[in-house]
Design a protein that fits this description.
Blueprint lengths: L1 E5 L6 H10 L3 E6 L2 H8 L11 H12 L4 E4 L5 H11 L3 E4 L6 H4 L3 H25 L4 E7 L14 E6 L2 E6 L7 H20 L2 E7 L1 E3 L25 H10 L4 E4 L5 E6 H13 L7 E6 L2 E4 H14 L6 E4 L17 H4 L8 H12 L3 H6 L24
Parallel strand pairs: 1-2, 1-4, 2-3, 4-5, 5-8, 8-12, 9-11, 10-14
Antiparallel strand pairs: 6-7, 11-13
Bound molecules: sulfoquinovose-uridine-C1,5'-diphosphate (USQ).
The site of sulfoquinovose-uridine-C1,5'-diphosphate (USQ) has 20 residues, from α8, β10 and β11.
């Protein structure tokens, strides 16, 4: 198949390009390198050094014996996007080209507006560009489990049966997102569902949990094939931050009670799941939703697992509870379904402890890079709009 990846230079995009090429697909994509700029704006850098796109293309050719078709540009530039799709003629388009951080979207009015403009209008452009340039292609759209929030009932995959005043229907499950970023994904889902309905586009909307990990099999030990790994308060997700903190002797920053529960997924499983979606497209006009995660964990359980694995490496690790900069439920019910991918053949590949161990040993040589940025580890972006660095809560 010909697969076009929007956001091909990112944490997920770069390994996905490799994973698909290794399976014999032709891969192309676009990127405006904004992720590199946002992390720099946070005063940080990737813990794992990454190459520029020229070197990445070179390594790609060497390893997979084929070209990575790449163009630099922004999804907000409609003509660029439509022409890129027109020229590449994809069978599938994977949309990873959005601003992915909840915290970044909560900094101030400008960052909230940027997030929604970038994500919602970029995705809308992609829908129109696909309609005009490749209407039969399958859109694999990266959404987030965070669209659903943390309701006090089970979470189905996108839709649920409603029986109301004697009539029944299958309706979108209510969305209760927890940041302006997560709401941007809800708006995308609505627009995608509508485009499938009116134009006959086909789409898989992936509600993905928090992805973690440093490796997929194609990377072998070539540093040019490695993906980025962030640890700042915006672009570092919780397991990544805990692993980086453990390596430099910083307390693991559990926000609040630490009983917040989320779905988590190793990077290699994320690749496998997106590939399953790509290789089993829906019918024209169909909009389907996959919940994509391996297992659910509480934040304090993750901290304990990182601590145990780091101590096996001879490191001393302490866990601390900090005032939660976010407005979120710290103790809640969480029971999402994930049956659609399993029905199509998804089998979890690794266990989380093994993956944490691999991450720690991959990050170990880069301790100095993490240490260099140790002063940006404690968050100061708060959901209430104020800005003050959080501190330890002794009462937990
Ligand atoms: N957390 C801590 N300490 C930290 C960092 C985070 O306790 O140092 C807690 C947060 O309060 C939250 C949980 O860990 O309860 C997860 O936070 P996160 O930053 O790892 O993930 P989140 O903000 O939810 O966003 C990430 C990705 C986003 C994706 C989402 C999937 O950045 O792109 O959409 O995970 S999900 O969480 O299922 O919505």
């Amino acid at each position: 198949m010909r697969v076009f990846i929007a956001g091909i230079d990112g944490y997920l995009g770069w390994p996905l390009a490799q994973h698909l090429a290794a399976r014999g697909h032709t891969v192309g994509g676009v990127d405006a390198f904004l992720r590199r700029e946002w992390v720099a704006e946070m005063g940080s850098h990737s813990a794992i050094p990454i190459c520029d796109i020229d070197e990445r293309q070179h390594a790609f050719r060497e390893h997979f014996g084929t070209e990575l078709h790449f163009r630099q540009g922004d999804l907000l530039d409609y003509d660029f996007l439509r022409t890129s799709l027109q020229d590449f003629q994809p069978d599938a388009v994977v949309h990873l080209g959005e601003m992915p951080s909840a915290a970044y979207s909560m900094i101030d009015a400008a960052h909230a507006a940027f997030t929604q403009q970038n994500n919602v209008i970029g995705s809308l452009n992609l829908l129109w560009a696909m309609k005009e340039a490749c209407p039969d292609a399958h859109l694999v759209k990266l959404g987030t489990m965070g669209e659903y929030g943390t309701p006090n009932v089970d979470i189905p995959e996108g839709f649920f049966e409603v029986d109301f005043r004697g009539r029944k229907d299958s309706l979108p499950f209510p969305r209760q997102a927890g940041s302006f970023y997560h709401w941007s994904k809800v708006h995308d889902s609505n627009n995608t569902m509508f485009a499938c309905k009116i134009w006959g586009l086909r789409s898989t909307d992936i509600m993905q949990g928090v992805v973690f990990g440093t490796q997929i099999d194609t990377m072998e030990d070539d540093p040019r094939l490695r993906s980025r790994l962030d640890f700042d308060q915006c672009f570092g997700t919780v397991i990544h931050r805990f692993c980086c903190q453990a390596l430099i002797g910083h307390p693991l920053t559990i926000y609040g009670a630490g009983q917040q529960t989320r779905g988590f997924l190793p990077l290699r499983d994320s690749m496998a799941c997106m590939t399953i979606a790509i290789e089993s497209p829906p019918a024209a006009g169909e909009y389907r939703v996959f919940n994509q995660f391996e297992s659910c964990y509480r934040v304090d359980e993750l901290a304990a697992m990182v601590q145990a694995e780091a101590e096996n490496l001879g490191l001393q690790v302490c866990l601390k509870h900090y005032g939660n900069p976010r407005t979120e439920a710290e103790k809640h019910y969480y029971n999402p379904d994930r049956n659609h991918l399993v029905a199509l053949g998804y089998e979890p590949t690794t266990n989380i402890r093994d993956e944490i161990r691999i991450m720690l040993s991959d990050l170990l040589p880069h301790r100095a890079r993490i240490q260099e940025k140790a002063d940006i580890l404690l968050p100061d972006i708060r959901w209430d709009g104020t800005k003050a660095r959080t501190s330890v809560i002794e009462s937990y």
